[in-house]
TrEMBL record:
It comes from Streptomyces curacoi. This is Peptidoglycan bridge formation protein FemAB. PROSITE patterns: FEMABX. Belongs to the FemABX family. Gene3D superfamilies: 3.40.630.30. SUPFAM superfamilies: Acyl-CoA N-acyltransferases (Nat). It holds the Pfam family FemAB. The keyword Acyltransferase applies. GO terms for molecular function: aminoacyltransferase activity. The keyword Transferase applies.
Length: 374
């Protein structure tokens, strides 16, 4: 029997998230305020006894001149993904509700891990000339239940979104991420997990007098100056400053530690900055920025170690470096970023990826063509 699905209040949504060990920062109510071009709605799944057993933040993006929407649940919803009747009991009520809302297509990102590669496995894969992509290397673990979920989604009409053209990153949220496991480990254990270069750079920064501190809303322009410089250097399109100001206002109003800003300085000169997000026992390194000046004092390593130290103090079970490329070719400029993250003791994690359900095939196809031309 399908579960009952209906809109829920912000407080109900937050209480449900608080009852879980963790959830994506894109599945908390405040994330809707970060995206003003989308209309946000909190959805709840209720069982036969009226208990809230699942929740999701859906973002609805209108099509110009039409009362039709793309419905998007980034890294969600928060449901029982391993339920044997997942599609019938959980997802069909969601599709029916969103169709009534005017959605022509639904996109979701199941927070389900398929494969993991340990730090050693990733290093070996990078060194192996025969391995061109992460998938060519033997994973440390593989969850057969995740593969079963994928089969059931396909059988119910869901389509797995194709990876984007940007060197292995998926359209939307990244399918591959790098995470440092913290659960059951002391800070000394985590420090020992850093590679030799990381430990050396942290010492070098300390000796050079690099100071890492927390900033506030008023420091976002300083962060943004470095972020814009980073965007130009690394060839990506930066988000505007008001995006980060909205993000700070919305997330910290919901929880004072939902978003933090860190700044690394040397002799009063801000050299690096980063944002950190927390939901439950999951901590994310969200946005990073740095200047090309004074790289020899290693501000990035110093800043990351301070963030990891604070995350451990907060009781984090995982420190998430977010997206990585799945290509291992030396010619790829993102390989250096993978080495940096793995050097912190990170392991590569592959999620189930994003999935689409076309409720109106004609409009869904038109959107696909539009996105392909962008």
């Amino acid at each position: 029997m399908p579960l009952r699905l209906q809109p829920i209040t912000r407080d109900e949504h937050l209480a449900f998230v608080a009852s879980r060990p963790s959830a994506s920062h894109m599945q908390v109510p405040s994330w809707g305020a970060v995206k003003p071009d989308w209309r946000a709605e909190s959805l709840g799944w209720f069982d036969e006894e009226g208990r809230l057993v699942g929740a999701g933040l859906v973002l609805l993006r209108p099509l110009p001149k039409l009362k039709k929407y793309l419905a998007y649940l980034p890294e969600g919803p928060i449901v029982d993904w391993h339920a044997p009747d997942l599609c019938e009991r959980w997802l069909e009520p969601m599709l029916a509700h969103l169709k009534r809302q005017g959605a022509f297509s639904v996109k979701m990102g199941p927070p389900v891990v398929v494969r993991r590669w340990s730090t050693e496995a990733v290093k070996a894969a990078i060194a192996d000339p025969a391995a061109r992509r992460l998938g060519d290397a033997e994973p440390t673990s593989c969850d057969a239940r995740a593969l079963d979920i994928a089969d059931r989604l396909r059988g119910s009409g869901w389509r797995q979104a194709e990876p984007g053209s940007e060197e292995g990153f998926a359209v939307g949220q990244p399918r591959h991420v790098c995470q440092v496991p913290f659960a059951g480990r002391s800070l000394d254990d985590i420090h020992r997990g850093l590679n030799q270069q990381w430990r050396r750079n942290i010492k070098k920064a300390e000796k050079a007098g690099v100071k890492v501190g927390r900033g506030g809303y008023e420091d976002l322009p300083a962060f943004y100056d470095l972020y814009a410089e980073t965007a130009e250097r690394d060839r990506f399109i930066p988000r505007p400053l008001p995006y980060f100001q909205r993000m700070w206002t919305a997330l910290t109003a919901e929880h004072p530690d939902r978003m933090r800003l860190y700044l690394a300085q040397h002799d009063g000169d801000t050299l690096a900055a980063a944002t950190m997000l927390t939901v439950g026992d999951h901590v994310w390194y969200s946005y990073g920025a740095s200047t090309s000046r004074k790289r020899e004092v290693q501000p990035n390593n110093a800043m990351q170690w301070r963030m990891m130290t604070d995350a451990h103090e907060l009781g984090a079970a995982v420190y998430d470096f977010r997206g990585i490329t799945d290509t291992l070719e030396e010619s790829n400029h993102l390989l250096g970023l993978l080495r940096f993250k793995v050097g912190a003791g990170g392991e590569a994690v592959e999620y189930l990826g994003e999935w689409d359900f076309p409720l109106n095939r004609l409009l869904h196809k038109a959107l696909d063509l539009y996105m392909a031309r962008r």
